[in-house]
Specification:
The complex is a heterodimer of chains A (88) and B (932). Chain A has helices spanning 3-18, 23-37, 40-53, 60-80. Chain A is mainly alpha-helical and 88 residues long. In chain A, helix 2 (23-37) packs across helix 4. The longest helix of chain A is centred in the last third of the chain and has 21 residues, at 60-80. With 932 residues, chain B is of the alpha/beta class. Helix content of chain B is 28%, strand content 17%. Chain B has 28 helices and 37 strands. In chain B, the strands form 10 sheets. In chain B, strands 13-12-27-26-25-14-15 form a 7-stranded mixed beta sheet, covered by helices on one side. A 6-stranded mixed barrel of chain B has the order 31-35-32-34-33-36. A 5-stranded parallel beta sheet of chain B has the order 20-17-16-21-22. In chain B, strand 10 (252-258) and strand 11 (261-267) form a beta hairpin. Classes of the chains: A mainly alpha (88), B alpha/beta (932).
Chain lengths: 88, 932
């Protein structure tokens, strides 16, 4: 999928949640939205793009959300006793 | 003429609490205060002769046939206009009454053709029936005097004729046009013997203000107004109650049949959504079902460049399954998906999503509701806990202030539009928020108190400013907020909304709406005892669609306008089963009843019932599917009843994506634009050819009943079953009732829905379960579905799509009364001649600046593509904004629209496209093209 499209959509989501007064909740809001509504392959591609490029085109709140998702996935994997966070 | 199977009580029911006991011909009957003697008699089983009365209209008292005797009352009062009073004693038959009635009938018949045997109303004529009822045996006046028998017949309407020689001037048609439809197109002109029904200013019906809703035809007691189909075919022999296949009002109809042929569609007097009314589409435009263009045999081809090859059902299904399995084997499980249709039944959409999840083994299922009301689902679930309207349609009868935002109900939802107009005529005040002056802003006896003519794309700024006024001027219902809403979220929102940047004065430069007008509208809504919001795609089809839905929910909670009749947040759904297709788990992240696929308990229930493991992660939305196709990772698509090429935005992008797929299976009743890029066509069934249910805008589940056999052999749910079986996942149902039983078993909000209950009650509104066994007209009465209502900060974020020197105008799109969405149905009916092409509405100033005259050919160019249309200069537009419809594929309107979409749901931003419009020599010699 076109990275530019993913970035645009992610930044739109970020722009909505940026207005929330509690920063942690806003980041969790973006992360929750990506998790609830994006297919895993799209999340994965966004994360890979960010890892590869630094994600400069992404809003900071989106970058934080992507990192939060990665931490959550790692924690879930650890809880399952799984070495690798699984996509699908 | 109304349906012969209807009982006509003569005058409307009254809803008074007080009961009145009367004696009619010795029988005692108890009725609500205000009931007419005529109606009370009908309830007691006494049919008083009548001609000018019918229970869909207020009593008029003109025909003098319904006279009765009442003890203690002098003379012979008309039973239709006389209300009952306690202990009243009525006689409906006596020698004196019989003589009077015969005298009246003699006068009528002395000026009426005596050709009953060849009259189209023969067998269903009230005049004929009344002549029999009063025992008419002679006409003492003879037939030689002055009469109207030579009056010319008006055949100008497409669907009905007006034969004044058969008119008895009872005014039922005039009153129906006023009271039911609210168009006021008809009148009685002249006096005495010269009285005659006249359309507009003595114009033919076809060129008058008449909107061909047919209310006049239905109310006519003679053959004066008759459907052309009845004239051609004669009276029907039976009728079947079913639900309209057009808009989200979901009107109930009696399909009047002769054998397997529809003679006419008559709106059902007992229909809970429409109460006996209909529009030009539902009542008349059903001929597409038997149009020669119908696809009758399955077709396959190896590539989209090959010609179609007609094949057997077995071969087509086997080919489709083989290809889809091949694609999954080669490209992976995620490489295929499905699209459900809001035009198909609940049971059919349920089965498509079941096929995708269980047979494909992924969650790549989406619905055409993606492109219309997906923000409604997101916003209302987030705020209230349920992705649906808060009210029923009848709620509007109790509204004091009605706010219509981004909807055009008199054209898009005409039957509800009539209910709105009626309520406004009764005194409710109207606020319209729309870039255009839509019809309801100013009509006979209806005028908006405020029309906030905003710039497209600035809805959120408007709703925030309205809430700012309510909050800052202490107009909020804080008691409701304290009792019913999350306190922390409200406090966060309160701080946000009171910021000066949300004031009407601050947003005026953005919205173009004068601050004083906005303040007045806000005060009006907030101070109403009952304030109701109705909205449409002018809200949802924006980059901020979901934000706006949240904003409206905020406003309704802030003013306490939730949880009782007359209030609420009411989405008007575009297609007949938008609500149902969403309810049925058509979105990639949700199972039925809006439960997330990641919820283990919900998913587990489906896994046990379906005997298959389900993927716990959301799948692709339609735009994701198209993007992935262009990327080469998505290769196969099963489309039921949808035309993405014509209806999705940025058609060039969609076409490029479809061209990269290896197997597109299209199930539809016509070869639509998407068929050009399909590899398999499975001929579907129209709503007349299937059993099932539709769920309308008010969450009302109604039966769809088969009145004729499927032209191509199968109902759509059967086709999905065939495909699923060929994919290795058999689904064994012998009737859609079994599918509904499964839906009810797996969906708490549908737990009480069954075909047996629908037979008994006519329809039910979900939630329908043990807590509400007969359904739920009004939601969130004592508590929200999610517990406490949730305020959400709704920052106004402008669209990325901006006007520029190159593209200085904003194009917005919509639809008109006589056509329906992409037009595949209505273009194959006589309605086509009412709207033969999509026009570009442009303000006269913008037109003058560009040298564009009325009717001139223009080129409309956006950064995505260009097309040509004919211009219509219209002061309804505001300068800087142009408008068109998308009913004709050759207009290619969606070549112009962009890839921008709602932030939360990817609902496309159809309503904001920056364009330039320039005059051109002619429409021809031009092929609309996407810019690539």
């Amino acid at each position: 999928m076109d990275n530019r499209r993913l970035i645009m959509m992610a930044n739109q989501i970020g722009a909505f949640f940026e207005a929330w007064p509690d920063r942690a909740e806003a980041v969790a809001g973006v992360a929750g939205h990506l998790k609830n509504f994006w297919a895993p392959s799209m999340r994965r591609q966004l994360a890979e793009h960010m890892a590869a490029s630094g994600g400069g085109e992404l809003k900071e709140i989106v970058r934080d959300a992507v990192r939060l998702l990665a931490r959550e996935a790692a924690a879930a994997a650890a809880k399952r006793g799984d070495e690798k966070p699984s996509g699908r | 003429m109304r349906s012969a199977s209807d009982t006509d009580f003569g005058t409307p029911a009254r809803a008074g609490d007080a009961a009145v006991t009367v004696k009619i011909d010795g029988a005692t009957v108890v009725v609500p205060a205000g009931t007419s003697v005529m109606r009370a008699a009908a309830i007691a089983g006494r049919r008083i002769p009548k001609l000018c009365a019918t229970d869909s209209l207020e009593p008029f008292g003109s025909c003098r046939l319904c006279l009765v005797e009442i003890e203690g009352v002098r003379g012979y009062p008309a039973s239709c206009t006389t209300p009952v009073r306690d202990a009243m004693v009525v006689r409906t038959e006596s020698e004196a009454l019989a003589k009077l009635r015969r005298g009246v009938m003699e006068l009528y018949i002395s000026d009426h053709p005596l050709d009953c045997l060849t009259c189209p109303a023969n067998g269903n004529c009230e005049l004929q029936e009344m002549a029999g009822a009063v025992g008419l045996r002679e006409v003492r006046y003879g037939y030689q005097g002055a009469n109207h028998l030579a009056a010319a017949k008006d055949e100008s309407d497409l669907y009905f004729t007006f034969d004044p020689s058969r008119c008895i001037v009872c005014s039922r048609c005039v009153r129906a046009c006023e009271e039911i439809q609210g168009t006021f197109a008809l009148t009685i002109e002249g006096r005495g013997f010269g009285s005659a029904v006249s359309a507009s200013n003595h114009e033919p019906f076809g060129s008058s203000e008449c909107v061909s809703c047919g209310a006049c035809v239905q109310s006519c007691p003679t053959a004066a107004l008759t459907e052309k189909s009845v004239i051609a075919m004669g009276q029907a022999e039976r009728s079947v109650v079913t639900t309209c296949g057009y808009c989200g009002v979901g009107c109930s109809f009696k399909a009047e049949m002769k054998g397997a042929t529809v003679v006419r569609m008559v709106p059902n007097q007992d229909g809970h959504a429409n109460h006996g009314h209909a529009c030009v589409k539902g009542r008349f435009a059903w001929g597409y079902a038997t149009h020669p263009d119908r696809v009758k045999r399955p077709m396959v081809r190896a590539t989209i460049d090959d010609p179609w090859r007609e094949v057997s059902w077995e071969e087509a299904i086997a080919h489709a399954a083989r290809e889809l399995k091949r694609i999954q084997a080669r490209y992976g499980r995620e490489a295929v998906g499905g699209i459900t249709s809001s035009r198909c039944t609940n049971e059919e959409t349920y089965l498509v999503q079941k096929l995708v999840r269980a047979a494909f083994g992924n969650n790549n299922v989406d619905t055409c509701a993606r492109v219309c009301h997906s923000p409604t689902g997101y916003g209302l679930k987030h705020a209230f806990g349920t992705s649906a309207t808060t009210q029923d349609f009848d709620s509007v009868r109790y509204a004091d202030v009605i706010m219509i935002i981004g909807a055009n109900p008199t054209e898009g939802h005409p039957v509800f539009g009539s209910a709105l107009k009626r309520r406004i005529r009764e005194g409710a005040q109207l606020i319209v928020i729309d870039p255009r002056q839509i019809e309801i802003v100013k009509l006979p006896h209806v005028a908006a108190t405020h029309h906030l003519k905003l710039r497209p794309g600035t809805n959120v700024a408007i709703i925030n400013a309205i809430a700012h006024v309510v909050m800052s001027e202490a107009l909020a219902d804080l008691e409701f907020v304290r009792a019913r809403c999350e306190p922390r979220e409200f406090e966060n929102w309160r701080r946000f909304i009171l910021e000066p940047r949300n004031s009407p004065e601050a947003v005026e430069p953005i919205t173009g709406v004068p601050a004083s007008d906005l303040r007045a509208a806000a005060r009006l809504y907030a101070s109403a005892p009952n304030g109701a919001i109705y909205y449409g795609l002018g809200v949802t089809e924006h980059s901020q669609g979901s934000t706006m839905v949240l904003g409206m929910a905020n406003l309704a909670m802030l003013t306490g306008n939730i949880g009782r009749p007359g209030v609420g947040v009411n989405p008007l759904r575009g297609q007949n089963n938008v609500q149902g297709s969403c309810d049925m788990g058509s979105f990639p992240h949700e199972l039925t009843g809006y439960r997330h696929i990641s919820d283990a308990a919900t998913r587990g229930a489906f896994e046990r019932d379906w005997r298959v493991a389900l993927d716990p992660e959301p799948g692709f939305r339609i735009p994701n599917m198209m993007d992935a196709a262009l990327d080469g990772t998505f290769k196969g698509l099963y489309i039921q009843g949808e035309d993405p090429v014509q209806s999705e935005p940025d058609s060039g992008h969609v076409i490029a994506a479809l061209k990269k797929m290896e197997c597109v299976v299209l199930q539809d009743i016509f070869l639509n634009e998407t068929a050009k890029y399909a590899h398999v066509v499975l001929p579907g069934a129209s709503f007349l050819e299937k059993n099932g249910t539709f769920t309308n805008s008010e969450r009302r589940v109604s039966r769809v009943r088969k009145v004729m056999e499927p032209i191509a052999g199968y109902e759509d749910w059967q086709i999905t079953c065939l495909l699923s079986a060929a994919l290795g996942y058999p689904m064994a149902y012998s009737h859609p009732a079994q599918i509904m039983d499964e839906i009810a078993r797996l969906t708490p909000t549908f737990a009480g829905v069954s075909y047996e209950k629908l037979e008994r009650l006519g329809s039910v509104q979900w939630p329908c379960n043990d807590a509400a066994p007969e359904g739920t007209p009004t939601m969130h009465v004592d508590r929200f579905a999610r517990g406490l209502g949730k305020f959400t900060i709704t920052e106004y974020i402008p669209s990325e799509e901006r006007t520029s020197a190159r593209f200085p105008l904003v194009l917005t799109t919509g639809r008109i009364l006589t056509q329906y969405n992409v037009g595949s149905q209505t273009r194959r009916t006589p309605n086509e001649s009412m709207h033969q092409e999509d026009l570009l509405e442009i303000h006269p100033h913008d037109a003058q600046n560009r040298g564009i005259r009325e009717g001139a050919s223009v080129e409309v160019r956006s950064r995505k593509g260009a097309t040509r249309l004919r211009a219509h200069l219209s002061p309804r537009m505001q300068p800087g904004v142009v408008y068109t419809t998308f009913h004709h594929p050759e207009s290619r309107t969606n070549l112009l629209t962009t890839e921008f979409s709602d932030w939360a749901t990817n609902c496309p931003e159809y309503k904001v496209t920056a364009v330039e419009v320039m005059p051109v020599a002619k429409l021809e010699d031009f092929e609309s093209v996407p810019h690539r």
